[in-house]
Every structure is written in structure tokens, then in C-alpha cells.
Design brief:
Layout (H helix, E strand, L loop, with lengths): L6 E3 L8 E3 L42 H14 L1 H13 L1 H30 L3 H18 L14 H58 L6 H4 L7 H9 L14 E2 L5 E5 L7 E5 L14 E6 L2 E3 L14 H4 L1 E2 H4 L10
Antiparallel strand pairs: 1-2, 3-4, 4-5, 5-6, 6-7, 6-8
Helix pairs in contact: 1-2, 1-5, 2-5, 3-4, 5-7
Length: 338
């Protein structure tokens, strides 16, 4: 055990030093660290501590985390979401303008770099390097160009969420429109290709018609239809124009027949009503089909040349079921000569 310390109070030479005993006070006894001044660091584990990978600020969050939070806020506050969507829509023109301005600047910078490389290749290295560096500077500054927004951009999570929802809906609508338009264009292209094939037949058959005319033969539509499947869809359309005034308007435009040498119409309200016009083929063994002819069905029954329903099948009443187009043109209605 150590002896208690003592304090000696010494004054000037006129006073002698006197001894003093330590006096007790009201301060508590020091703890285990004694009277050390400073920060006491507790003892830590020697094992490595895993780092904290949780975002602590808005900027540290990933795009998905921010978007998910914005969408959740938009659901909780629909009014603010609508405001954000309207703000986003109002700023679409300015955003498009910013893209155009930045794109033009990037393109200009690229062209300057290309011109610089060209000058350097011609031996003008100083000019080429200057142009190239200038182009790099223009491209670097392009990202800072912008067109002022028309309104304040969405500035709360709910508003940003509403803007994201509106943008997604517009993209989906645009995508659906592209798909729909693409399907329509493909269908139209297919129709044109089909008609182009038939038109080629008409050209070839037209040449034969011209040849026949030069030889003094009868160059009538009947001769034009003499090859194979007839005059083709284009020729059949010219025949159809001769009966268009009899076909009810509600039936719409005629469609090409399966062979492509005729046109047919059908009642959308009663599939048993229909009219088909075919180009004649002088080489056909059936006399009724050697001339342009029409087949008429009314309530599922075939109408003959006399306007009456034929008895039996078309095969059994071939000439009566195939009405010459020249006769059908005089019918006052689509299904009756009376």
C-alpha cells in the first residue's frame, strides 16, 4: 500500500514551506479508467464487421427502389398522382425539344471530329487536331443543353409516380398502335402482292389479246379470259362494275373468288344470299361458262335465268344456273329479272 501524497506550500524566502495533509472532498471516486481525459473506445471484436449496404439517402437508392416508392406514393395519393401526370404531359414538348437540341449538337460535334480526322489524313495535322478537339467539346457540352419546361416538373414522390404511370400507359398505347398498324400494313401488302400476280396475268393475256387482234381475231374480254383462270382479279373487277348497281350497299365491296377470276358478294345478315360474277373462258367445255356469267343465290337457293329457283343441283341445271352477264345486266334487282 502506498503512502498518501502530501502537498508542500512554499511562499517567498520569508516564509518557510509547511506540510499539509490531503483533505477529503465531495467528488466521486474515479472509475476503471481513472482520470483519463479523452474518448474511451470500447474493445471491439477482432472479426471483420460486414459493411452497411443499406441506402441512407435518396440519391443512393436504385432506380427501381425510387420508382417503387413513387408508385406506392401515387397509389396512396391519387390527386397528387394526377397532378404529376398532367405536369409530365405538359412538359412533353419541351422534353422533345431538349432531345432534338442535344441530338443536333451531338451530330454537329461528330461531324467536326470527322472533318478533323479527314484534315489530319491530308497532312493538315494542326487543323485536324483543332477540329477534332472542338468536336469533342461540342459533344461534351451537348448534355447541358435543354429547352425550359413549360411547368414545374413533378417534385414529390406521388407526382413522380403519377408521371411514371402516365408515361407507361402512353408507351403501351403507342406499342399497341404499332402492332395494329403493322398487321394492317402486312395484310394490305399481301393483298397487293396477290393482285400484282393477277395483274401480271392480265398483262400477259393482254398481249395475247393484242396478238389476236392483229391477226383479225375477236379481241373482246371473252378472248382476254381465254387463258387458264381467265382475266384475273383486275379483269374480274371490270366485270363487277357492270353489276355494282344491283348489289345492296349493305353487302359492301365484293371479294375475289377462290380462283381469282371473279368477284363475289354476300349478305352479312343472311349468308344464304349472294351473287358471284365470273369471267368467261372460251376454251371451257361448258358453253355456259364460255361467256361472262353470274350465279345468284337467294335464301340458300340457286336462282335460274328465268328468275325461278332451279330444281336440283347446279350440275343438273348448268345452263340455267349460269346466267350470262349480258342478261343479268338487265335484271332490275339482284335476285329477280322481273
Amino acid at each position: 500500500m502506498t503512502e498518501p501524497y502530501r502537498v508542500e506550500i512554499c511562499g517567498t524566502s520569508t516564509y518557510e514551506c509547511k506540510s499539509a495533509e490531503p483533505q477529503p472532498n465531495n467528488y466521486p471516486q474515479p472509475g476503471p479508467s481513472g482520470n483519463t481525459v479523452g474518448l474511451i473506445v470500447p474493445q471491439t471484436s477482432p472479426l471483420p464487421t460486414p459493411p452497411n449496404d443499406q441506402p441512407e439517402t435518396e440519391q443512393e437508392k436504385s432506380w427501381w427502389e425510387r420508382t417503387k416508392g413513387d408508385l406506392s406514393a401515387a397509389v396512396d395519393d391519387p390527386l397528387a398522382a394526377v397532378v404529376g401526370a398532367l405536369k409530365g404531359l405538359a412538359n412533353v414538348p419541351s422534353n422533345m425539344g431538349t432531345l432534338l437540341v442535344q441530338g443536333a449538337a451531338m451530330q454537329g460535334g461528330l461531324e467536326m471530329q470527322q472533318a478533323g480526322a479527314y484534315q489530319a489524313a491530308l497532312g493538315n495535322e494542326a487543323m485536324g487536331n483543332a477540329l477534332f478537339q472542338e468536336g469533342q467539346g461540342v459533344q461534351a457540352a451537348a448534355s447541358g443543353l435543354s429547352v425550359p419546361n413549360l411547368v414545374t416538373p413533378p417534385n414529390t414522390p406521388a407526382q413522380r409516380g403519377g408521371d411514371d404511370i402516365a408515361t407507361a400507359l402512353m408507351m403501351l398505347d403507342a406499342g399497341a398502335g404499332l402492332v395494329k398498324g403493322g398487321v394492317k400494313e402486312l395484310a394490305q401488302a399481301g393483298k397487293l402482292v396477290g393482285e400484282g400476280v393477277d395483274a401480271g396475268k392480265v398483262v400477259a393475256e393482254g398481249a395475247d389479246t393484242g396478238k389476236a387482234a392483229a391477226e383479225g381475231a375477236d379481241a373482246t374480254p371473252k378472248t382476254k379470259a381465254a387463258k387458264g383462270s381467265g382475266g384475273g382479279y383486275v379483269a374480274a373487277r371490270s366485270l363487277a362494275e357492270r353489276v355494282d348497281d344491283k348489289i345492296p350497299k349493305s353487302w359492301g365491296k365484293g371479294k375475289p373468288t377462290r380462283k381469282g377470276d371473279g368477284v363475289r358478294w354476300q349478305d352479312p345478315d343472311n349468308p344464304g344470299n349472294g351473287v358471284r360474277v365470273d369471267a368467261g373462258n372460251p376454251e371451257n367445255s361448258q358453253i355456259a361458262q364460255q361467256v361472262d356469267h353470274v350465279v345468284v343465290r337467294s335464301n340458300g337457293q340457286v336462282i335460274g335465268r328465268d328468275g325461278e329457283i332451279i330444281s336440283g343441283s347446279i350440275k343438273d341445271n348448268f345452263e340455267s344456273a349460269h346466267i350470262p352477264l349480258s342478261e343479268y345486266e338487265n335484271w332490275p334487282t339482284w335476285n329477280s329479272p322481273k
